[in-house]
Amino acid sequence: MASTEILSYTSVSTTLRPPRVVIIVDGGQHWSYWVRRALYRADRAWGGAGFAVVPHRGGQVDPVLLRACEAYDPDFVVTYSPTVDDLENLRPGWFTIAGDDGEPLSGDERERMLSMVVDEAVPSAADHAAREQIAAVCSPYASRRGGAWHESIEYLGDEPTGHFPNVVDMSETWHASVLACPAHWGGVLGAAVANHAGVAAPPEHNAKEPVLDDDLREQLAGWLLDDPSCSAPDELMWHPGVAVGMDTKMTPTAHARSKTHLVDVHTGFDIHRTGLLVVGDSAEDFALARLWQLTFGTGFWLPSSLLDGEGTVRWRLGHRIARIARDLARNSNRLAITSISRSEKGLEVTRDRVVAANQIKIPGQQDPKLDVIFSPKLPWRQQPTVSLAVEDQWDSQVTVPISVAEDGTRRMAAPLPAPVLVSADLVAQEDLQWHVDVHWEDSRAVRRRGLDSIELFGSRPAFMSTWARSSRHGMTYQSRRNDFVTRGTRPENTLARVALRELSLVAWIRAKAAERDLVARPSEAGLRTGLLVGMLGGREQYVDVFGGVLLSALRGMLVTSSTSKVAYPDGDGVSLSSREGVLTFAGMCTRVAGLDEADVRDRVDAALSSGMLRRGMVLLCSTCQQKQFQTIDRLGQRWRCARCDALNDLDRSAWKLPVNEPTWFYDLHPVGRHVLAEHGEVSALLSAYLRATRKDRRSSFGDVEEVTFLDGGKPQVEVDLVAYADDVLTVAECKSGSDLTGRKARLEVEKKCRVAAWLRADRLLFATSAEAWTPATIGSVSDIVRDFSGWGTSGSPEVRFISGLGRNHADVVDESGI
Which of 290, 615, 628, 690 is a good FRET partner for 565, with 20 to 30 A between their CA atoms? Predict the structure, then answer.
């Protein structure tokens, strides 16, 4: 173990779960068929109810769905290619088979040749392009080996694999009736039922939108909204064999049946959450509702034919929606209506119709509020609250020995126990692979954002025995070893036993830079800041001094006149030169607002103990007449001049005034003076502001000042502050002035955009201690950020301007929302 590391122990919690998967489908004309086909495949896999299906159009995925996929945090992003049979049935004559003479075959000969390739998958360049878009904003299992990125799985075939094991032979899985989308139900209603209940039988190619009478339509809509008074229509009953009479209220859905031996786990604080009612008839509306439900727990999709097909909303639906909103409001949550296919004005009209339809008024009870949220403004930064886990094997606590590096990175000194399943039914499935979520106690790690798998292992192995990734709750690894395992090996020895490491923010930035063959290290200003951090005992202590109430006193030690009467007209300091001054304790108290003398004394004493402040006297050498500050450690009845080395007596001729006794003065360490002279305290002020304004004061906060990125040893860009809190990563530029325009400023802003793109930052922040940014600066910077070409598929981050740091209050201008 390196000398810079210390040995300790920590607690980690582990959860075994099935995979979270995004399946890509074509969102064009036949999107409902592809959705139902993908969900059929998912429901034949372990935990299929936790799979998301996301459409694309010509290889492009809607930006709202990209945000949704990022929040959902899939383990795998896969394409599900159609077969020759699919395409031939949906587009008759699509497949051309040429005979020996080069002419297209027809009749029986064509059918014979077609039958030989009917099950062949037909990859799509558009599917692949959409997969690349989603994978770029998510954090699937991936590693940059040999200079190129490789992912664990990119394609979902029609046959089960070890990653997507077949559960058809598990007890109580597909040997009884379930509620599911009928094979002959197509269109939007077929997709709605498939989304809510699942798919138990392969969908028919020629399935049409079902024609329902008013009562059946209302019944179906109520069931989709989980109305306890509405049972599922009898048409949704699927039987594995001979049909028998059953009550649809007592019959589970195909989705529920696919969750055999799995449980829904709800985490986080159930307050200030948003439930979603998605309206509209597009594939994107379907995907939005499903992703929201899988991530946050309360998400419904109602096609227009079930909600407001005739321009009005039936009273039963209005009452049910009001009930959902009221139940959410009891826990300080809300229900909102949204859509990708409808305009904001159209959503307001639908909302008003829904509210008007609630004709049942309960005396003394206020009508619940139904908000309208335009889909680009949905709050994806909520903490995910819903996931699937293996029954009885979630949130298991393990104590592990760790070594803690100087930069705060924690590394397991021993591997975690093998993730052994306990259910006899699950153990019997030899091809079963699950995923292990690992959450460190008091975790400070940056989550998600596509970290190289190899960076998460305790040591950087030449060969990864399994895959790991940075996930939404911490880190995740695959249960199975992927190295050579001989036949007859005991089951527990086929499982991965990994020692992981949790990167500090500093180490994480270095790792992200290395992905682009860059080196990240402290700049010269960062080295100075690091020295002060070490002296004061930590980053938080440094921010408390240079970004807190003592700052005004420290600034009082920077002067612009060598004459004490000019620099300190109140006589509470002495100017040693045109740039350096020292203060009395009274002078410090005068400059510190809001603290009494005892509080200032305590803070000054703590700074003295660290060496950041020094107590001493201002004395005059009798030989060279040099005015100088002598620290208390160098004082005696005889003291030595710092300039001419002459010995002097500590008497009135050395200190001049007052006559009776010399006055104690306080000096700032030279490194601290350098930080203030270069306006480095603005970064500390911003750090203090971000710490104080984070959403959850109990959450961890990490930041790094003054980082420079180098390419081949040549500096490319410096960043004043990188901060991480509430799962929001911020890249910040800090200034003391109010103007950031002109060619040079434009180049600097573009460089900050490059770093924000490298780190996949959520927020790009421009902060100043000046009273306000100039309007020209706000407009110019906003244009540069918007026009920057390197943002990738996730788009530009939120842009904020903060001014007035260190004053009575800071002003925030928010130019864009996440």
Answer: 615
